[in-house]
Every structure is written in structure tokens, then in C-alpha cells.
What does this fold into?
Amino acid sequence: MKLLVVNPNTTASMTAKIAAAARSVASPGTQIEAVNPSMGPVSIEGFYDEALCLPGLLAEVAAGERRGAAAIVVACFDDPGIDAARSIASVPVIGICEAAIRMASLLGHRFTIVTTQPVSLPAMDGLIHRYGMADRGRARAAGVPVLALEDPLSGAVTKVRNQIRAAIAEDRAECILLGCAGMADLARDLTEEMGLPVIDGVAAAVKLAEAVVGLGLRTSKVGGYARPASKPYTGMLAALAP
Amino acid sequence: MKLLVVNPNTTASMTAKIAAAARSVASPGTQIEAVNPSMGPVSIEGFYDEALCLPGLLAEVAAGERRGAAAIVVACFDDPGIDAARSIASVPVIGICEAAIRMASLLGHRFTIVTTQPVSLPAMDGLIHRYGMADRGRARAAGVPVLALEDPLSGAVTKVRNQIRAAIAEDRAECILLGCAGMADLARDLTEEMGLPVIDGVAAAVKLAEAVVGLGLRTSKVGGYARPASKPYTGMLAALAP
Amino acid sequence: MKLLVVNPNTTASMTAKIAAAARSVASPGTQIEAVNPSMGPVSIEGFYDEALCLPGLLAEVAAGERRGAAAIVVACFDDPGIDAARSIASVPVIGICEAAIRMASLLGHRFTIVTTQPVSLPAMDGLIHRYGMADRGRARAAGVPVLALEDPLSGAVTKVRNQIRAAIAEDRAECILLGCAGMADLARDLTEEMGLPVIDGVAAAVKLAEAVVGLGLRTSKVGGYARPASKPYTGMLAALAP
Amino acid sequence: MKLLVVNPNTTASMTAKIAAAARSVASPGTQIEAVNPSMGPVSIEGFYDEALCLPGLLAEVAAGERRGAAAIVVACFDDPGIDAARSIASVPVIGICEAAIRMASLLGHRFTIVTTQPVSLPAMDGLIHRYGMADRGRARAAGVPVLALEDPLSGAVTKVRNQIRAAIAEDRAECILLGCAGMADLARDLTEEMGLPVIDGVAAAVKLAEAVVGLGLRTSKVGGYARPASKPYTGMLAALAP
Amino acid sequence: MKLLVVNPNTTASMTAKIAAAARSVASPGTQIEAVNPSMGPVSIEGFYDEALCLPGLLAEVAAGERRGAAAIVVACFDDPGIDAARSIASVPVIGICEAAIRMASLLGHRFTIVTTQPVSLPAMDGLIHRYGMADRGRARAAGVPVLALEDPLSGAVTKVRNQIRAAIAEDRAECILLGCAGMADLARDLTEEMGLPVIDGVAAAVKLAEAVVGLGLRTSKVGGYARPASKPYTGMLAALAP
Amino acid sequence: MKLLVVNPNTTASMTAKIAAAARSVASPGTQIEAVNPSMGPVSIEGFYDEALCLPGLLAEVAAGERRGAAAIVVACFDDPGIDAARSIASVPVIGICEAAIRMASLLGHRFTIVTTQPVSLPAMDGLIHRYGMADRGRARAAGVPVLALEDPLSGAVTKVRNQIRAAIAEDRAECILLGCAGMADLARDLTEEMGLPVIDGVAAAVKLAEAVVGLGLRTSKVGGYARPASKPYTGMLAALAP
It folds into this structure.
């Protein structure tokens, strides 16, 4: 089975890190194809970047399904474009925030998402609410830019670690969710160090994608995820028309 | 004061209808500028169209603010891109679904949104939930394509009328919300005919925009709507970089 | 258009301040009539005062509609008697707490109400819950009596300012709501000083009232706001019988 | 122990029926004093009547406590003035809607309130929501005026019975709540006839009042129910000043 | 009337304390029978103990009903087995957590449960949520083992007192709930000392049980609490088959 | 990896069916061990059976972990004992209801659980609520005893099919969940026949268990799932003491 992992920003080094995280947990029979769009923002921090990553992301989703992907992971913790991707694809589409939250619900009661920038906190709040976990989860920001995670000298990981400690002490967190695909390489060590599950959404989504595919299930097409009607799109997005 | 009304689809006849609805309620001192993007879907029906209208919509929002708009209305009942538009603009940005829901909350208890296609119902459910009205509102679909509303012979209005009657009888609706900008011309007559408030989101948003501007208030920039950091965007979206 | 603003307490100096706040934002064509009842409490602090302001408030609402008011604002942040006023009037009736909350929802995610006395906090909690914003808003008390706001030497404004700063730092508030009609004169300066929207409910309600009237909408009479059946009222309230 | 039961409308025959219902369940040591105000509406149907019953109701509450009542029951299913009564009194104050809902929660999962008039349904919805039972309860209206319950020839009881049957069949109700103090005499027979708990709020509140008094507990005075500060009330309500 | 109070752990000294608390509030006509199972955990701290107390608890419930109990109280603040006990019994079954929460809702707005061990906090959260009070209540742990409450030299009561003070100061609690049947002897003194209602669930449940019995109401048998169908149980639990 | 699947009732034919369903989706490296307790109810229908299956279930969970299970599935749609099992085990424990609901959330918006008996509906409601999906899911009963699913001549499958059709037509369901482990063999055919995802919880839980194990995650032991303190258990449950 081929699993497409789309990093919706355009930074190839982050795609590589995501690919490594995905491959580190993939089952023997799973082939990971990690891509990023050629158009759009170099990192996703806040609602505007999130909106503008969509054309590139959705083009990769459609292309990936055409190339035979059995499932698709959207590897940004804002879960951008998940609804649209589920509409255009027939195979399962999984966002890394939802994946991490679903895993956390199996392992503990309260959880805390540690994300990068404060600007992302309302988006995190919105996702926690949307996924029905407002009474169990909350979000904190480490105050680090996304791309600082690519730089070992930035001190970013220390800031993440500090927020995890605060979540355990102050939020009664039983699980920690790493709120950025750029933190995918930290989960295993932090789980060990902190003594509770620290969940990376990329890995969680890969395993969840394998699970859904293994069940033979596909996105429901009888309601809101019905394939979009064919219609003209104009201008430079014409090629993306359904 | 200049008010920008963006129809996020690319159908000019619908923009004209929206402009007329906006002008019919605008205060004497308000100048309505109604535009639509040149790129994107000809109508917005479901999550995929909603995602792909965003680049065109956000470009119009940014351009409108540069041209001096005092507030911006997004004239699609899915409230596409509201969060992103509020991030990129400093002036207030108002979606027609939120506007209609806020007006309804002042005039009655329960409300029903009558939208076009069943594919849009989960999006409507999501907005009702997001706006905190899950215990007061629900949505129904008339089963008409958006562009059928442009055709007086399509029978679309009769189907809308039937759903309004069902909402009164079965949902205990005290207000009706017309769930598509393409229904903007129907509100006044249906209010009269049905004997309860029938609210058009375009008109509601225009008046709400005037209200916010009149208060001298602008979008908060201290949290999730902070202006996006300057960063490179690549490919054909480079021109949209913040 | 004539807009009736009812201060439901009997303190004329506060009515004058409310009138000034209302007039400072009213559109050219709007005539503000500000009144207060001759019977009832001199200030509204807690549930008991709130209940006992109702006969005077509702008499003013009914008289105001008879005198031709196009809409009515109830200028106490507890939104006392809103449901009853909407029943007895046909024109729109708007409470200043709901107005402020609806405006805040357009400008930011989380908000904090800064009210006067701790005794009012459960009422604020109740309104936030009723208006569907329990996941986005909370309330704080400055610990000042309502009428201290009328006295520039009381230090009341400093206490309000301190709570605003705490809300920004601790609640992640993106908007502040001034939780008492007696703070109506502070909003514009505090917005400037604090760098985020500080919303006065009186002004918000005036603009929202103009908006609803401009839409040609009136209170729904098909459900809970149906005009009360004519029936005898006995004793000293007989004159208030519907 | 003396228990004050206040019928907040001014219809003495209904007070007598309420008194009988209260006495039918009171413990041997409980003395029931049933009163109604001399001022206010003859029946409470909708928000306006509910607001205007408050001065009479609160005067009776205060007088009752002065006369030595150990607890006070407010015998109208809208729970009018409960918060205000709890502020002015130190003894426990119990509304019949809350009492009935709390009893129902001990005996089954879902419940349906069968009230008199459709105009009261939004008030019932509001109470169900306020008491935290929105996922377990709903309300139906029998379509009978309150005072028709006083007239055996009105057919009112048949209409109540029909709604109970519908609630069992369609709402999966496990308990029925009689949504008007004027139905207090029906509960015992309907429990027998319908084969599930049919709860009268008057009786429920009397027993709950005995329970709270038996625990030696009184209304909390540290927050929203703190005794109102002494202050002038003007006009014909001056005598009600705290 | 005979009231069965089941302490679901096997510690007889705690049963004696519970019996004393129950008798201290029982009405003259109420005979308290306090029992504990002979099988199961010596104290209930966390989910595992809670599950394993059930066979013993349910055997006592069934035996108690056969011996003529008019109602049954389950005297552990986790409300273990309440749903099962309501299924197997026809008489009312009342858990002490639900009883305390229902009493608190009559006396104040916010409440805090002070329980023994942190391991019980998620169970408390779950019960607060289940009973519809997530917006009004929270839980704190004093950090004392259940059986330390039996030892006056353990310092346990001081730790409970400290958490009560913190709840008043930090949670805006208006009522305190003692979150363990082993604290039943502390309520009356702490109410006096702390100046707000401090509620013991055992006493609350006894009075609530008397109230329900006094209404002539029994558990609804039309839905989820229908008596279990007769069927074989195997192994050492065969004697518990319905 | 060895995966323990516990059927918490004592009917071996149902265990065999569950084992087959589990094996049909297990990955090549996964060894399924399916067991049922020797003590307890022959089927689980309602809260009483659910409570009395716990000693047998928890004994199997503990024994399974000792024998080296990498994860444990509890194969009853009531998710009995999940919290207790997560406390006693260190490996992940997954209930089939939660598993099915988490899968459904990835594939569609609204879902309907089709369970066996009406007596189980409140339990289903409770789980939907607990898992945060009250706005997206509901439950229906086919009106068939659990063990009728073992008998091809019982007509049970037709009744299940009818409820699925009703859910699609009336609930706007986008996914169907088979609400009993005894329906595990029906999912694949019904998915095909009904044209939307029909999810069996046993299969879903097996794949989810593989996913969690593949991530190297275990149950959090820092809060409510901390391993129970060692303490005496008395009577015939002594052997189950932690």
C-alpha cells in the first residue's frame, strides 16, 4: 500500500523530516511518499498561511490519488483543508491534529497540545472544539517560529520541553501532543524523558491511515464529502476545477 | 464610508444581485463596492469549492483594504476564509452566515437556515456549532443548485418556500435564514409572506459592518488575527505573500 | 428614526452618561431618547435589583413603543427583562450585554467582560452561557460599586484598567467588554490605550439597533415572543396588564 | 418546620390546588403555608407575565422568611425570580421546574416536560439548558391555557395525556414532568396510568425543601446570592428596597 | 420506611461512620440500615477498585430490596454501579455524588468537589460532566488516602481544609462538596467554619431518598433501567444472575 | 505482536465470531488471541450485565498482559470496564465503541449506531456524549436480542438493515456503526450494499490497537489511569486484588 504524506508548506527540509517520521512508524508493507506543493507559504503560522496553502495542498491530494495512494495524510497540525481534501478524494484523508487527538483519547483523560506560536492558539482551540474534546484538551504555545525547529541552535526544543512540564504541573495533562509537524522527531525521546505519552501527529496519522485502509473503508460520499460537481474554475486556478 | 462586498465566486450576475441587496439596505453615507475574484469556482457548493475560492477572495480583501474600504463583507453563506481575511485585514471583516445568525439571535429563539444543496448541510452544522448556537439553530436544504437561483423558471424559489414552511411547522423556527447569497433578493417578500423574520445574510452583514465601523472598532490584532509575518510564498501564489 | 434607550435604574446622572454614549455613535438620522423609570433601584447590582427594575423598565419599553420608538435598547449589562420586553414590544429590543458579545465575536476569539462587583459574576457567567459563548468568554470583577463610576475620585477606573491588563495577560483575551453601562464613557480611550477592542455595550447596542431597523426586521411573534394574551393584573401592577 | 409555598400568580383557586398538592406529600412535621401575591398577573404564560409576577412574588418571599419559613417553594414551572429570591432570603429557595428535573435525573435518562402553551416552550428550553440537561430533556406543549386546568370540562387533561403518550413514543422519555403548577393534582394517577414516573414539580419541591432543611443547609451567601446591599428604591416599589 | 445505605468497600469502620452520618439526618420515620459487602476492595481509589466493588455492591442492593428497603443509597463518591443498581432494583437508587451535586445546584452557582486522591480526579470530572454541571463545578484532590480519614492523627482533615480555602479563593466556589464518604462527619463543622455550604453526599443522599420515596416515585422501567432479562451467569458470579 | 481480544460475555460461539472478525483485518505480524471469561453473563444487554461482566473481563485483561499481549481490545459495544482495564494494564486498551466512533470521525460527519436492544440506547447515548460526539452521532435499536445474531433464521439481520436505511434517510447519517460485537461479520457486505462506510467495532479496534502499538505508546500512568495501589480485596474477589 502507498501512503501519501503531504506537507502543505513548501519547505523541503521539513518534508524530509516528516518523511522520516512517517517511515519510522510505517508497517513493512507501507510505502511512504512524502511531498510538498511547489506553490504556497514556506511555513504555516496562523490563518492566512493556512488558507493559502490550500491550492497547492489540494493539487497534491488529487495527484496523489491519481498516482494510486491508498490514503493521504495532511501533515500540518492546523489540519488545513481536511474537509476539501475528503471531498475531492475517495481514499481516506487524515489530518495530524485529529490523528493525535484520537490517539490521546485512548491513552489518557486530559491532554495539552504544545504548539509553536501564540498566533496558532485560537486555531488549536477551534480544532479541539470541533473534535469534541473541549472538556479534555487545551493548547499552549512554546513561542518558537516553525522554522526554528529546523535549527538545532535555536533553543526551540528547550521551550517546547518547558511547556510540557507546565502542562503536566498546571493542566493535569495525561498526554502531550506535539502541535507542529516540525516537532515530529521529538516524540519518542520526550515520551521517555517526561514519563507520559508524547504524541507526534505525523506518526499517529500514518498508523491511523494504515488502520483505515486495513479496514477497507473509504471516505463517505453520501453527505458533505460527496465528490464536488464538475464546474468551471476560472483564472489561474482553472486547472484545479473538479 | 466605503464598504467592500466580496462575492467569492466568479459569477458576475450573482455579484450584481448581491450588490443590489447590499445597496438596498446601505445607509446614505455608505458606498457599496461589490466585486468578485477573477479566479476560482463559478459557484460555491461544498468544501472543495469553498477552499478554492480563497486565493481569489483573499486577494480581493487585501486589494479592497488598500483601496480604502472601511469594512469588508464576505458574501457566501459558508463564511469562507473569514479567519484568514481577518488576519490579513485591519478593518472589520464580516461573513454573511455569522451576520445572519447574530441578527436572528436578537429577534427569536430557534432559527432554521434554508440552504441550497444537501452537500452544504455539514458545513452549515459546523458554522452553527462554531458560532455557539447548536442548541438554537439547524439547517435544511432546498435541493436547488446555487445558479438555479439566477433562473426564474427553475422552480428554485418554490422549493425554498416549502422548506421555510417545514421549518416553521417542524423545527419551531422563530426566524429563517436564507442560506445562500443568491437568495438575497427574496428576504423582504418572504418576511411579509411567512409572518416571521426571514433574514438575508448579505443585508445583515452590510448593516453589521456599518455598525462596527460606526463604533470605531477594528479587528483585534493581539491573538489569532495578528497580521501574518512576512514570509516567502512560492509559485503562482507568490504575489499573495503577506 | 427614534431609538429609545432605557437605563433600568433610577439614577438620572447615569442616564445622562448613557445618553451621551448613545449619541456619540448614533447615525445622523437617529434620534436618541434616553429615559429611566421613576420606580425601582438606584443601581443594579445582583439578581434582586435586576428583578425589581423590571416593572419600571417594562413600563418604559411599552410607553416608548407607543411614542414611536423604532427600536429599544436596555442599558444594563445584566440584560434584565430582555425576553419580557421582546414579548411586549414589536420593535426590536436589544440588551447591551448581548450587543457587546455579538460585536466581540466579529473582532476576536476570546473576550473578557470586566464588570463592577463580584456579586454580578454569576449573572455574567449565565449570560455568556446563554449566548452560546462559554468556550470563548469569561468575566472578571473590578470590585467597584456601580455608582463609584460616577465619581472621578473613587479610583474605580484604575481598578477597571487593572482587570483589563490581567485579562490580556491571563485570559488570552482578544477583546474586552465593559460590563456596566456606567463605563460607557471609557471605551474609546481604553481601546487606544490597551491596543485591542474595548467595547461599550451601550454604543454597541445603539449601532445594532440601527442595523436591525435598517433591515426592516422586527421581533418574531410566532413563538416565545408572541404578544402576551390580554389578562387581568391585580394590585398596584394592574396598569401594566398586557 | 414551616414551609412557604408561593404561587406567583394571583389566582386563589390555583393556590388552593397547589396547597393541597404540597400537603399531600409533606412530612408530618412540615406545616405548609401557601400564599399568592395580591399584585400581578392572574396566570403566568410567557415571559411578560413571568417578569411582572416578580414584585409580588419577592414580597411574599421576604415576608415569608420574616414569618419564620424554613424554606420557600416558588410554585410556577418557569422558575420565576429564583435567583432574586435566593439573594433576598437566607433560607433555601426551590423552584418547581428545577425540583422536578432533579428528581427525574434520579429515576431515568431522558425526560419530557409537558407544559401548557407553546409560548412557554422557549422558556422551558432555556431552563433545561440552564440546569445542564439539554442532552436529556425536551419540552412539549399541550396547547391548553393555564386556567383551563381549573375547569374539568375544558378537555385540558386529555390534551396533556396525549402529549405524554407522544413523548413516550417519539422522545424515548423515561420520565414525564408536568410543566405547570396547575397540573399538580394529576401526577399520581398519570404515573399509574402511563407506567412511568410522572412528576409534579410542586410535590417534588416540597420534598426537596424538606431535604435541604433537614441537612441544615442554607443558601450560599459568598457569591451571586450575597444579600443585596441596602440602597434606595424609588416610586411604588420603594417598600421592596433591600 | 427502611433505607438501605451500602458502603461499597469492605471496611466496617467506614460503614459505621457512614451509618452515623446517615442517622444524624434521617427523619423520625426512617430506619437506616447500613451495610458493606463481604467481598471486594477495602477502599475505593480509582477506576479499578470501583469496578471490583460492583458484585458485592449489587448483591447488597438486590438483597436490600428483597428485605424491604424503600430506597437505596450507594455511599461512595464515585457513584459506582448506579446504572446497574437502578436496573436491578425497582426502588429508587441514589449515589452520593449526584445527591451532593443536586443539593449544591439549589444553594449556589459554582461548586468544588474536594476529593481524596489525585487518581480520582478524572472520575470526578466524568461525573460532573455526566450530571450536566461541567460549566459550574470542578474537582480538587487533598492528597490523602481514603483510610487516612479514619485516623485522626493523619493530618488528612487539615489538607481537606486547605483545599476548601483554595476553592473559595481560586475557583469562585459557592458550595463545597466533600468528595468521599469517609468525610461524612466533617460537613457540619466545616459549613460553620468556612461560611458557605459544605455538603456531605451521604447525608444529601439520605434526604433525597426520603424525598423520592415520599413522592411515591420509583425508578423508571421503560428504558435503560428496565429490569434485566433473566439469563444464565456462569462461574462464581452465577448466583448474581438476574 | 500479540493482541488480546476479550469478549466480555461467556458465549464461546460469539468469541469465535469476534476472533474471525479480528483475524480478517489483522496485519501479517499480528497474532490474535480471543478469549472470554469463564464467569459472568452469557450476553451483555443493559447496565446490569455490563457491571457483572467486569470481574471476568478484568481478570482476562490482567492475565493477557502477563502472557505478553501488546494491546488489549474489549469486544463489547458498551465499552465495559475500559477505565478499569486501562488502570490495571500498562499496554493500550481499546473499546470497540470508541474505536468505531474514532474511525467514523475520519470518514464522515454524522453517524448512527445501530445496536441490538432498546435497553442499550441510554448506554449508547452516554458513550456518544462521553466521547464528545453528541452533536454528530445518535443511536437506534434494531430490536433484536444479542444471541439472535448467532441464529441465521432469526431475521435479526433484516432488522439491522432496516435501521441502517432509516438512519440514512432520517438522521443524515454518513457512516453507520454496528453496535454489537455480534454483528462483526456483517460490516463488509453492508458497506457494499448500503454505499457508505458500515463500521464494525471489533475490526476497528484491532487496527487501532496495531496503530497505537506501532507508535510505541502505552497508557498514561500519570493521572486517572495510574496503576491501582496494592490493597486487600476480600471474599471471592480476593484473587483480583491489584
Observations:
- Chain A has a mean pLDDT of 96.
